[in-house]
Amino acid sequence: VGERILIVDDNERLCAILREELLEDGYEVSLAHDGRAGIQALKEDAYDLVVLDIRMPVMDGLDALGRILARDRHTPVVLHTAYGSYKDDFRAWSADAYVTKSTDTGLLKTTIRRLLDERAAPEEDS
Amino acid sequence: VRPPDAVVMLLAGGRGERLHPLTRDRTKPAVPFAGIYRIIDFTLSNCVNSGLRHIVVLTQYKSESLDRHLRVGWNVFNPEVGEYIDTVPPQQRFVDRWYEGTADAIFQNLHILNRERSDRVLILSGDHVYKMDYRAMLSAHAEAGAALTIATFEIPIDTANQFGVLEVDEQGLVIGFHEKPENPEPAPGRPGMVLANMGVYVFDTEALVRSVVEDSRRDSAHDFGMNIIPALVESGARVQSYPLRQPLRQAGRLLARRRDHRRLLRGPHGPHPAGSADHPARPRLAAAHLAAPVPARVHRTRPRRQRRGGRGLPRRRRRRDPRRQRHPIRPLARRQRAQRRRRRGVHPAGRRQRGPWRRRQARRHRQAGPHPRRLRSRRRSRAGPPDVLRLPSGLVTVEKLAVLG
User: Fold this and answer.
1) Looking at CA atoms only, how far is residue B101 from chain A in angstroms?
2) What is the complex's ipTM, to 2 decimals?
3) Does residue B210 belong to the interface with chain A, where contact is any CB pair within 8 Å?
4) Separation in Å, CA of A24 to nearest CA in chain B
5) Which H or E element spans position B240?
6) pLDDT tens across B133-190, in order?
7) Chain B contact for A70, CB < 8 A?
């Protein structure tokens, strides 16, 4: 517990809500408000998981996704968007999970937990 | 425009180091082959002849020559109906790197597949010399309901360690894939032979995208033969083999290229050394042309330009029909003509007069009957032209002379 999560989303109010909820669950949370800032944050610090919005200014989430994975292909990335249509975009298939934005953050939280556990599992084996 | 049946992703980024001096200035697919062609023309010709006109050529090294060749030589696609041939160097729109392998080249261009939304993707190499109908392979792929169909050709088992070798069952379903194996199993029913991977793949788009995306998250060489296919076979997806009963030449080695080159040139398309025996497939006309002697003499028969006609103003010279026979009696010089007229009692300016003088003259002429010399000339013309050959104008060679007799 105490895993570091980066939330990249241009909606600051949503970011604040998510941060609060994830802090309650015992995660460490950082925020970035566009794709480029997200990549910069990843350069400066190590994170265990990234929650990435798609529709953002400066650099959109799909372009940022490729660059994030090119830097470190083992970091789990959750695409968190209000649009269901990006599910069909082949570029979005690189992400580990695709969660549609909702007032109920339960799905996002379970997805984050699952990915972090999956990531931790092979390390336990070795 | 309906989406295409299949998008062609043509991998043409090879450095071609084994072909070194030929690839000093251009990528391997752009190396000239058999005169005016480039190696990539074989694959592109197969595509066009298979009705595939949505072609993405993925380039990387020294692509200028290839680019130019495609622009100049393959300008046969109609964009109005959605056809295209595009060269795509690494766009770096998704990642900041060059193509790291064949699978990475596809991964970096997922946006193209996104745009096209075809059911299938045909992946080809730009450096193979072969003939193939991809339609047959595409329909075999659809019939088998496969995720991936791999075109194969048979090779002797002792050369298997140079190729990717497929392990198949009797139905052609691939049950194993080994890159450059030392001791492979022979193909069923073909002792001493194995099925080698040609590097021609038909993928279901979804299976392809899933494979390359998964591969991009792994530490691998990002290569179809080494990573994608073994992983796909292992995952239990339906991978089918499609045997091609034809040799394929990868223009890899210089020697092989030279041999193929010479074989092609020796055929009916090659140049024909003058004086040697006719090639059976060559048309006679060309052979006759080559056998024709070098012109020995050149005659100029066009008459020198001269001015004719009347009152100070030069008349436009009519071009003489070169085939027309000229009258045997040449007109005399103007002064001479005038003198003769005067002697004859005709107006010195000629007969084109009007008025009383002309009428009187005409009456006199009618009474006198035709001039004796006119009679004589008429007799001559009735006897036919003299046996003088007029040559056509322009350059005349010895052969033409022979034709004219």
Assistant:
1) 14
2) 0.83
3) yes
4) 31
5) strand B239-243
6) 899 899 999 999 999 999 988 888 888 888 889 999 988 899 989 888 888 888 888 8
7) yes
Measured CA to CA in angstroms, residue B274 lies from B279, B294, B368 at distances of: 11, 12, 71
Taking phi over 0 as left and psi of -120 to 50 as alpha, with beta for the rest, B345 belongs to left
CA atoms of A9 and A56, how far apart (whole Å) = 7
Residues 39-58 of A with CB under 8 A from B: none
Q: With CA atoms as reference, report the closest residue to B131 among B200, B74, B36.
A: B200
Q: What DSSP string runs through A13-53? A: HHHHHHHHHHHHTT-EEEEESSHHHHHHHHHHS--SEEEE-
Would you state the structure tokens that stand for residue B404, as one six-digit string? 């004219």
**Strand partners for B120:** B6, B204
Cα four-point dihedral sign B289, B292, B297, B303: negative
User: Which positions in chain A touch B95 (Cβ < 8 Å)?
Assistant: 66-67, 69-70
Residue position matching structure tokens 């041999």: B259
Nearest CA in chain B to A93: B213
Amino acid occupying residue A45: D
B contact test, residue of A52, A90, A91 with most B CBs within 10 A? A90
**Residue length, chain B?**
405
Q: In the predicted model, what is the mean pLDDT of residues B41-68? A: 89
Quick check: B114 and A91 CB within 8 A? yes
Q: What's the CA gap between B121 and B136, in Å, rounded?
A: 14
Chain B partners within 8 Å of A74 (Cβ):
217
In tens, the pLDDT along B231-254 reads 999 998 999 999 887 666 655 555
The amino acid at B389:
L
- What tokens were used for B237? 């997806």
